[in-house]
Amino acid sequence: MAGGSWITPASLLWSGAARVADGDLGGLRTMVVLGAPVAALAATYWWASFVHKTTPSG
């Protein structure tokens, strides 16, 4: 199912959501696999901006 296209994450998310909507909770795995790296990237960005604000200058 996964390929080299830039649209692959969106198609995987869409198919996972469709499976969950049909009552198959196996689609959650697909959505978590996509969501975990995005959440880690967002948390890293937030932490970097927090550290940058609290670092004394000078």
Compute the average pLDDT.
Answer: 80
In sequence order, what are the helices and strands, one letter per element? Answer: HH
Distance between the termini: 52 Å
Radius of gyration: 17 Å
Helical segment count: 2
Q: Helicity, in percent?
A: over 70%
Describe this structure in a few short sentences.
Helix content is 72%, strand content 0%.
Written overview of the protein:
The protein has helices at residues 8-21, 27-54. It is mainly alpha-helical and 58 residues long. The model has no long low-confidence stretch (mean pLDDT 80).
Secondary structure layout:
Elements: H1 8-21, H2 27-54
Helix pairs in contact: 1-2
List keywords for this structure.
58 residues; mainly alpha; 72% helix
